[in-house]
Design brief:
This protein is mostly helical. The chain has one domain. It has a three-stranded mixed β-sheet. The chain is elongated and about 80 Å long.
C-alpha cells in the first residue's frame, strides 16, 4: 500500500465513528472544537514540506510536534509528564527497531504494519487509559522513532524527516489504541452489568 492511503482510510473511519455518536467512547474529555481544529490542521499540512538548511521536514511531522505540545498542556494533573516522555521515548526506540525488522513479519497473516500497530497499541494501553495520555505517548513515539530512522538512513536519503509511512503509522497506532481501549471498556461494562444482574437474581431466589 502506497504511503498515505492507510491514514486516509483510518481518517474516514474515525470521522464516521465520531459523527455516529462514538465520541465519548473514543475521545472522552476532548472537545468537538479541538477535534475539528485537529482535522483541519491534518489536511492543511498533509502535502506541505519545510526546508531548514540541509533538513527537509514534512508537514505532518511539524503538525505532530505542535500536537504533542498541545497534548502535554491538556494532560490531567495526576499524569506525570516526565514518566509519559520516558514511555514515549522508549516506545519510539522500540518502533524504530521493530520498523527496521518488519520484513521478518512477512510470513504472518495480514500486513506487517497491522501487526506493528496492534503491538504498539497494546503497549500504550498497558501504560495509559486516558485518551490524551495515549495520544501524547504515541505522538512522541512516532516523533522520536522517525528521528532515529532519519539519522540511520541519512547517508542514502539525506536529512528527510517525517516522510514515507510515518503518517500512516501514527493513525494506525492511535486508532488501534483507542478502538481496543473502547472495546475493553465496553466488555468490562457488560461483564459488570451481567454480574450485578446475576447477583440480584440469586438474592431473589434465596
Amino acid at each position: 500500500m502506497n504511503p498515505g492511503y492507510l491514514s486516509y482510510i483510518l481518517i474516514c473511519i474515525t470521522v464516521i465513528l465520531l459523527v455516529s455518536g462514538w465520541k465519548d467512547a473514543l475521545l472522552r474529555g476532548v472537545s468537538a472544537r479541538a477535534i475539528t481544529l485537529f482535522f483541519i490542521g491534518c489536511f492543511a499540512l498533509s502535502e506541505v514540506k519545510f526546508s531548514l538548511g540541509q533538513w527537509t521536514i514534512s508537514g505532518p511531522y511539524a503538525g505532530l510536534v505542535i500536537l504533542f505540545f498541545f497534548l502535554l498542556l491538556a494532560l490531567p494533573e495526576e499524569i506525570s509528564v516526565f514518566y509519559l516522555m520516558a514511555c514515549g521515548l522508549t516506545l519510539g526506540l522500540f518502533y524504530f527497531l521493530a520498523n527496521g525488522i518488519s520484513l521478518s513479519l512477512a510470513g504472518l497473516p495480514g500486513s506487517s504494519q497491522l501487526w506493528l500497530g496492534l503491538l504498539i497499541g497494546l503497549l500504550v494501553i498497558s501504560l495509559y487509559r486516558n485518551p490524551i495520555a495515549q495520544l501524547a505517548c504515541i505522538t512522541l513515539c512516532i516523533l522520536s522513532g522517525s528521528l532515529l530512522q532519519m539519522y540511520s538512513h541519512a547517508s542514502l536519503a539525506g536529512y528527510r524527516l517525517g516522510f514515507g509511512h510515518m503518517k500512516d503509522h501514527w493513525w494506525l497506532f492511535a486508532f488501534s489504541a483507542r478502538i481496543i481501549t473502547a472495546a475493553l471498556g465496553y466488555i468490562a461494562l457488560m461483564t459488570r452489568t451481567w454480574f450485578q444482574q446475576w447477583t440480584e437474581a440469586r438474592k431473589e431466589k434465596e
